[in-house]
Amino acid sequence: MKPANAVKKRKQINGNTLLLLITIVLFFVLYAGGCLVYGGKGFTNLQTFLNILISNAGLICVACGMTCVMLTGGIDISVGSLVALDCMLLAYGMGEWHMSAPVMCLIVLVVGLIFGLVQGYCVGYLEIQPFIVSMAGMFFARGMTAVISTAQLSITKETNAAFYGWANWRLNLPFGGVPNRKGVLIMPYIRVGVIIALLVLVVIFLVLRYTKFGRSLYAVGGSEQSAAMMGLNVKKTKLKAYVLSSFLCSIGGICYCLNTQAASVSQATGMEMDAIASAVIGGTLLTGGVGNVIGTLFGVLINGTIASIVQFNGKLASSWPNILTAALLCFFIVLQSVFAFLKEKKK
Amino acid sequence: MTKKKLTQNPLFLPLVCVVLVLAVNVVYDIAQGNAFYDFFRITMQASASGEQLLSGRLVTILNRGSEVAILAIGMTLVVSASAGTDISVGSVMSLCASFCCMLGAGFGVSAVNDPSEFAMPLIVGLIGALVMGCVCGAFNGALVAYLNIQPMVATLILWSAARAIGLLLCNNLIVYVRVPQYQVFGGYIGFMPTPIIIAAICIVVVSLVLKHTAMGMYIQSVGINKKASRIAGLNSKRIIFMCYLLCGLCAGIAGIVNSSRISSADANNIGLNMELDAILAVALGGNSLGGGKFNLAGSIIGAYTIQAITTTMYNLGVSSAVAPVFKAVVVIVIVVIQAPPVKAWVRKHAASRSTGKEAAHA
Predict the structure, then answer these.
(1) Which domain holds residue A217?
(2) How far apart are CA B33 and CA B23, in angstroms?
(3) What is the DSSP letter of A184?
(4) DSSP letter (8 states) at residue A172
(5) Tens digits of residue pLDDT in B150-187
(6) Quick one: fold of B68-340?
(7) Which of A88, A247, A329, B147 sits in a 20 to 30 Å window from A41, CA-based?
C-alpha cells in the first residue's frame, strides 16, 4: 500500500468516528433544544450544565470503568448495586460504627477491589460469561446492602462532620455569574465529586491511550486469539479490567454518596443501565475493541441533559428518562449493528 | 461404573438440589419439634368463604413456583437456541400485568371493585397482555436474530424500559382489580390452585410440541452451531426469533398470573428479580448456559427447586431483601461447576486417580 493512500484512508470517516460524531451532535442538539424551550426557567445558565456534572459525577466514574470492561468485549451490570452497597457502607459505617470518613472511604475502595477481583477471576480464569457473573454480583451486592441495613440512612452533620463538609464544599468558578433577584452576583460552582470524576476521566483517558495495559485492553477486545498470539496475557488483562471497573465504581460510589448524602437498598437502581447506555452512546462497541472515555463523557452528558429536561418540564412522569435512555441505547445498538453489517459487506 | 452413569444423568444436578432442600426442611421441622413429615402433608382446609382448598407447604411451593416454571420454559428455549439469556422477562411480566389491568380498568383509573366498572371486557385485557408479551419477545428476537446483537445486551433495553413503560401506564400507581373473574387466575378453581393448572398446561403444550414436531431438534441444532444448521437448510434466524417470541409470551402469562395473585398491577414489584430465578432454574436444571442441548424437565424441576429454596429461606426467617445474596451465591457455584476450566481440572483429576501415577505423564 502506498503511503499517500494510507494518509487518504486515515482522513476518511469510518463508522466508529461517525458514531462519536453523531453523539456529540446529538448532545448539542439536545442541549440547545433545552435552552430554547426552557430558557426562561434558567436552562441557559452555566449552573444548569454544572448541575448535570454534579449530579452525574458518580456516573462518570462508573461509566469510565464500564468502558474499560466493554473494551475487552465484556460487560459489568453489577455497578449499580455496588454503588448502593458503597453508599450503605459509608452511611452505616460513619453513622453506626462511628468510623472516620477517610477510613470508610478506604474500606469502600478495598471492597470494590475485592469485588472486582472475584468477578474478574470468574470471567478471566474460569471463562464464565461476564453477564452471568456480574448479574450474580448485582444481586449479591444488592442483597448485602440489605444485610447491612434496610433503613433509609442519611449522612448529616451529626453523623460525620468531615464527610458532610466534603459534600457541601463548593468551588466557585471565577466566571459566568448570574445576578439573582436581589442583584447579588451568584457565581456558578462545582463540588468535590466533579473534580474527582474529571480527574478519573483524564487518568483513564491517558491510561487507555498511552499505557501497555490500556492498549492491551483494546487488543483483547479486538480479537482475543490474536492478542494471545501476540503474547498478551488475555486472562490477566480481563481480570485487571474488572478490578479497574469495580474500583472506579467504588470511587463513583463515593462521589454518588457525596451528592446524595443518603443510603438505601433501592439506591442507584438502573445505574448499570445508564452506565452501559453512556458507553454505547459514546461509541464504545459492545463487541469490544473500539471506544474511548471522551465519547463516554458525552454519553453521560446526554443522559444528564435528558434527565434535567424532564426535571425542568416538571410534568413528565419520572419514568421518562429511563424510557428515553433505553430508546437511545436501542437506536445506537442498531446503528452499531448496521455499521458492522456494512463493514462485513465491504470485505 | 453405575455411580458414574448416575452423575452423568442430566437430571442428576436438579434432583440432588431437590433432595438437599427437602432435607433442610425436614431437619428444620424436627428442630422445631414438628413431625418430620409435616413438610409433605397435604390437607384440605376451609377458606374464609367456606370452600375446601388444597393446602400444605408442598402445595404452596407448587403454587408460588408457577410463574418461575412458566418463565423457565421460555428461558430454556432461548438459552438453548441463542446461547444467551433473556434478562427482560421480569420487566416484561410487569409491563404485561400493567397493560392487562389498564386495558380492563381504563387508563387513569386506580381501582376496579366490580365487573361493571370495567372499561373493556376482561378478555380484551388478557389477550392484550399476551399480545404485549409477544410484541416484547418479538422485539428482543428481532434484535438478537436479525441484527446479531448479543442476547443479553439486546434484552437489556427492555429490562430497563418495560418496567418504566409499565409505571407510565399505571401513572406510578398500584392499580387494584378486585374482581373475582380476574382473581381466579391467581386463586383457585374448585380446590386446585389455578397457577398450578396454568403452569401444567403450558408445560404439557410445549413439551408435546417439542416431542411431536422437529422444533426441539431444530432449536438444539441452531444452538449447537448456527452456521451449520443454516447450511443444512434450517432458517436459523427464524428459529431464534421464535424462541424469543415464545419467551415473551411466557412472560406475559406469568405476568397475568402474578398480578392476578395480588389482584393488582404493581409495576414496581411484579417480576422483580424474576429473571434471576428463571436463569437459575435453567442452570439448576443441568442445562448449559452456553446453548445447545436442553432438558425442559430439568428446568421445570429447577424452577420448583428455586421456589422451595425461597420458601425455605422465608421459613428460616431470611428477609426477602436479603434472599438475593443466597441465590447469587448458588448461581455462581453452579456456573463455576459448569465452567470449562473447572470441568477440565476435574476430568484430569479423576483420570489421574483412576489410572494411577503412570497416566499422570499423559
Answers:
(1) 61-268
(2) 15
(3) P
(4) E
(5) 887 888 889 889 989 998 888 888 888 888 888 888 88
(6) ABC transporter involved in vitamin B12 uptake, BtuC (1.10.3470)
(7) A329
Q: How far is CA A128 from the centre of its chain?
A: 24
- Contact list, B342 vs chain A (CB under 8 Å): 126
The model's confidence at residue A267, banded by pLDDT at 50, 70 and 90, is confident
Q: Name the least confident of A2-11, A89-98, A122-131, A290-299.
A: A2-11
Picking from A133, A137, A329, the nearest residue to B157 by CB comes out as A329
Q: How far apart are CA B242 and CA A61, in angstroms?
A: 39
E-state strands within chain A: 153-154, 170-172, 178-179, 185-186, 189-191, 262-263
Q: What is the pLDDT of residue B362?
A: 45
Chain B 162-191, CB below 8 Å of chain A: which residues?
163-165, 167-168, 171-172
Residue A291 backbone zone (phi > 0: left; psi -120 to 50: alpha; other: beta) = left
Cell of A162: 468531615
Cβ of B325 and A131 within 8 Å? no
Mean pLDDT of A45-60: 87
Among A139, A264, A280, A331, the residue to mutate for chain B (most B Cβ within 10 A): A139
Which chain A residues touch B171 with a CB distance below 8 Å?
317
Share of chain A above pLDDT 90, in %: 25
Interchain contact B49–A (C-beta under 8 A): no
Q: Which of residues 287-346 of B touch A (CB under 8 A)?
A: 289-290, 319, 321-329, 331-332, 335-336, 339-342
* Position with higher pLDDT, B289 vs B274: B274
Residue A325 lies inside a defined structural domain of this protein: no
On chain B, the residues whose CB falls within 8 A of the CB of A340 are: 148
Q: Which residues of chain A have a CB within 8 Å of the CB of B150? A: 286-287
C-alpha cell at A117: 477481583
Does the beta carbon of A143 lie under 8 angstroms from any beta carbon of chain B? yes
Between CA A245 and CA A112 the distance in angstroms is 9
Per the model's pLDDT, the better-predicted residue between A193 and B12 turns out to be A193
Is residue A13's pLDDT more than 70?
no
Say whether residue A315 is in contact with chain B using an 8 A CB cutoff: no
Q: Supply φ then ψ for residue A154, to 5 degrees.
A: -130, 150
Structurally, chain A folds into a number of domains equal to 1
ipTM, two decimals, is: 0.80
Contact list in A for residue B168 (CB cut-off 8 A) is 317, 319-320, 323
How far, in Å, CA of A337 to CA of B148, rounded? 7
Other Cβ atoms within 10 Å of A161 Cβ, number: 12
Query: Measured between alpha carbons, how far is residue A67 from residues A60, A279, A293, A295 in Å?
Result: 10, 6, 7, 10
CB-CB under 8 Å, B87 with A135: yes
Nearest to B289 among A132, A334, A338 (CB): A132
